[in-house]
Amino acid sequence: MNETLDEHAALLAQSVGDYVRHGADLPRVRALAQNHAEFDPAQWRQLAELGWLGVLVPESCGGLGLGLAEAAIVAEGLGRALTPEPYTAVAVLAARTLEGAPVSPLREELLGGLSGGSRVPVLAWQEQVDDFAGLQLATMAKPFEGGFRVSGEKQFIIGASAADGYLVTALDGDALQLLWVPRDAAGCSGDSVPLADGRSYGRLTLRDVVVPREQVLASGQAARDALDRALDAAAAVASAELVGVMKRANEMSLDYMKTRVQFGKPIGSFQVLQHRAVDLHIQQSLADAVLHDVVAQLDGDPGPVPRALAASRAKSRCADAALAITRAAIQFHGAIGFTEDCDVGLYVKRAMTLSAWLGNGRAHRARYARLAAGGGREAA
Amino acid sequence: MNDWNTMSDEAFRAEVRTFFENEFPAEFKFLPRRMRWHECRDWYLKLSKKGWIAPNWPKEHGGMGLSPSKLLIYMEEYERAGAGRMPDQGLTMVGPTLIRFGNEAQRKRFLPLIIAGDAIWCQGYSEPNAGSDLAGLRTEAVPDGDDYVINGSKIWTSMAHDATHIYVLARTDKAAKKKQEGISFFLVDMKTPGITLRTIRNIAGHEEFCQVFFDKVRTPKENLVGELHKGWTIAKGLLGFERLNIGSPRRPLQALEKLEMLAQARGLMADAGFVERLTQLQLDLADLGSLYGHFVDKVRRGEALGPDVSMLKVWSMDTYQRLSELLIEAAGEHGAIEGEATIGDVMIDTLSPFYNSRPGTIYGGSNEIQRNILAKYVLNLPS
């Protein structure tokens, strides 16, 4: 990493730290969750003004043109603050997909708008459970002279409620098409499935939606490559959010163990709790170390197999560590940890939704095993 | 001199792989026990001559000065080739300790001996009544003329019967208020009159550790490392290097190599339940590599290792044991056979990783002691 980038990272870490200290507003998070809302336009504007939405957007499109190491710094802070707005879904998954698409007026317009906060493109790629790479597609793109007519259904879309349009994957014969479908396109409808943490998965139904040729963002192998690279990046950055969640939950548990007195002593003096806390701290440290290595590896743009292995390592460790740490936080807090008023619950639920999205620990271990069996582990 | 760190990972891996595979003596590959000095001497000298004996040391002292990622590749290829663990106390403990805490004369005298294989070190730490409670040690050193005179006994001293030198923690001030104060750190030649030892047979039937007795053993005053009575700081510094060494992925990698061989031989990769458990362990080990790299980086930057290094040791030895247990389970009925069993088209000693990994959660400070350290000094939990 050169000095300028190091400087960027340091400045970013500082502004993220300030945001978490002053801007992290758990009452806001709680109020949004209770109303099953997840998007506050004012908050989104603030993220745009801080430059965070454009971390991965090329400078030529108005972004900062930085890498995943920097996106991970932002995401860890947002995870720690439990910010429900879809940073990873938009500023990483959609931004990386668009960035990987060939240059076109639409690509520049969407990337610029994404970075500035005026456009909220969201990727709609997944149809089947556990198919987080979006390989099993039933959505079809039927060509006609002006473009494609698209029909199919997509699910598990984080950020759908805020989206002004979707980056949709569809098959034209064997060829993958990456298409822009505005939210209000004729034949495009959606609903949502509530999640444990008050956010939601969007479901998208497309019936003979007309996609004019100029809304085709990428085709064939170019579309596949852009998608795969973006999905691995998003798995890594979602892992950073999980690291933020687990660190804060662990801090809450340790603070509580130092102050809660039973049998005349702080409960943190009991060896059985100390050793349990240590084992969870080890999981947190492993997650942190893996995340650090993996984003550095991904920023070096390795081949698809080492990249996928690395992303799966990160998501598997970070998801499972966050689940273990937040669940234990309930136990450490005792009955109060089981109440709705206790903030611990907010962290447990965010760990659950972030773990499940983009492939949970088990699913990523299965992918890792498949790729490693093909001789990929050595290449990594 | 080569700058290994500017080589590509692939080129470096290819170079060390070729050398380890071709040059490590075939008869000692995947030996189920530790190599004795007479068995590994030639190999040690071969590595020394090539400049590869001390991958973790800085170049100025005769090491390779490898970056964490290169060091991990070195270890992976060493274990992949089935190359055995040599008496490595000098390379992993004494060297880094003298580089950090020793004086120039001690570095000049002892470091080249280690590189050349002329000094083989063992560790005089534990005593019959000072195990987990190391600071309760009672071996004494008293000044007398130009020497210190040492009396007492050390136990669980690995490979002492092959060692030419021993480093010893001894009490020099019995009146000190705290038991950690009044301990000093000495270097002692094993040929000094008054040293005797008895070997102790371990659970696997091998003689790898000893009890060492000191009866009026004289060591010259220049062999005191650091200040008198301040040996606990050095002892803890060395324990940091020990935890880094035990916490490296090296030993668990040995077990993983065997497990992968067994899985191929038995066709277990078609068993989804087995694959899930194997993958979890592969990732536990890969992630240990990332955490290990983080601590190696600290040492390279010249930063002191803090108490947080204990977590490496806990995780590494825990992973090693879990790997050894899955190896036995995956061997089915063969998992009860003593020595090598023919499984499919390979010969595997399925019990040796089990035996070799058992003391890992006991020596170097038991995993429970490491957790106490982490709870107190890293998590700042009350006592």
What do you see in this structure?
The complex is a heterodimer of chains A (about 375) and B (about 375). By secondary structure, chain A is α+β, with helices and mostly antiparallel strands. Chain A folds into three domains: about 120 residues, Acyl-CoA dehydrogenase/oxidase, N-terminal domain (Butyryl-Coa Dehydrogenase, subunit A, domain 1, Orthogonal Bundle); about 100 residues, Beta Barrel (Butyryl-CoA Dehydrogenase, subunit A, domain 2); about 160 residues, Butyryl-CoA Dehydrogenase, subunit A, domain 3. Chain A is about 55% helix and about 15% strand. In chain A, the strands form three sheets. A four-stranded mixed sheet of chain A has the order 1-4-5-8. Chain A has a four-stranded antiparallel sheet with strand order 2-3-7-6, with no helix packed on it. In chain A, strands 9-10 form a two-stranded antiparallel sheet. In chain A, helix 1 runs parallel beside helix 4, helix 5 runs antiparallel to helix 6 and helix 9 packs antiparallel against helix 10. The radius of gyration of chain A is 21 Å and the shape is globular. The mean pLDDT of chain A is about 95. Chain B has about 375 residues and is α+β, with helices and mostly antiparallel strands. Chain B folds into three domains: about 80 residues, no CATH class; about 110 residues, Butyryl-CoA Dehydrogenase, subunit A, domain 2 (Beta Barrel); about 130 residues, Butyryl-CoA Dehydrogenase, subunit A, domain 3, CATH 1.20.140. In chain B, strands 1-4-5-8 form a four-stranded mixed sheet. In chain B, helix 1 runs parallel beside helix 3, helix 4 runs antiparallel to helix 5 and helix 7 packs parallel to helix 9. The mean pLDDT of chain B is about 95. The chains are: A alpha+beta (about 375), B alpha+beta (about 375). At the A-B interface, helix 7, strand 10, helix 8, helix 9 and helix 11 of A face helix 8, helix 9 and helix 11 of B.
